[in-house]
Amino acid sequence: MELKGIHHVSAITAKAKDNYHFYTEILGMRLVKKTINQDDPSVYHLFYADEAGNPGTDLTFFEIPNAGTTYQGKGSISGTSLRVPSDSALEFWEKRLSDYNVDHGGITRQGERNVINFRDPEGQRLTLISDETNQGVKGGRVWDHSSVPAEKGIIGLGPAKLTVQDPAPTVKVLTELLTFKQTGSYPSSFKGNEDIIVFETGEGGTGAEVHLEVRNDLPKERPGRGSVHHVAFRVDNEEELAQWRDRLQTARVPNSGLVDRFYFKSLYFREPNGILFELATDGPGFATDEDMNHLGESLALPPLFEHRREEIEANLKPLDI
Hints:
The chain is α+β, with helices and mostly antiparallel strands. The protein contains five helices and 16 strands. Strands 2-3-4-1-13-16-15-14 form an eight-stranded mixed beta sheet. An eight-stranded mixed beta sheet has the order 6-7-8-5-9-12-11-10. A hairpin with a 5-residue loop joins β15 and β16. The longest helix has 13 residues. The radius of gyration is 19 Å and the shape is globular. The model has no long low-confidence stretch (mean pLDDT 97).
């Protein structure tokens, strides 16, 4: 039982149509699944990823049309990283983001790596991170029809940044309950703050890291549009996921039990600082109900919702009009 890395990150958008434009046209990611929030089928759940929606490349968004402003703070997933192949790719992105008037901080250093911190139109905190020196989990493959050249494009998710006030209980969950190891640190961008701690699991590298930031100067985050709902970690298969459920129960950690998300099986729980973690299986994947060449082109509904297709489609606004 060893977690393989980041599986996906799920965030919140108030404007699905604008979100679709930004992540496909400007960032060049592929919409691999256009489906519904299974807890609220009146709104979209959108999945952007590499060409095949491989585990570790999915950035997903729940549409919440009335979502308010995010008030950033502790007890949060405060940063999502997107991997690009090289340092030279970051130079391409620095110009591209400027050309599209995207708020960004230019190329800077994050430990031993080059990065660009930027925000989407709703304030989502994002980082492009170079895989120039990556020795761990391999990235995905840019879609042939991406608006961005393959050698420059986004190839997966990088480290997830957590911001907490008290690091000890989160560290305990990561290292004693899960399978992360503390492997390093780098200076905070906020003067006087503690170094950000790096944890990794599985093969390690940019696709298998969590970065832990300690902030005593912030209130608890009030999430809204532009915030992250949860981060998911990769589990090999359903049998192993069941073993993780048993491990959580033995440790008396409240959890959701096994949940069938159709494209993968999941398990949810909160660590002591209130951050929602998900464990998710690598399969069966997004080609379960669509041809690989036509992923995301039509509304995909899990079997439990198929009998409501007409009603559900009538409530959803088209993304590309």
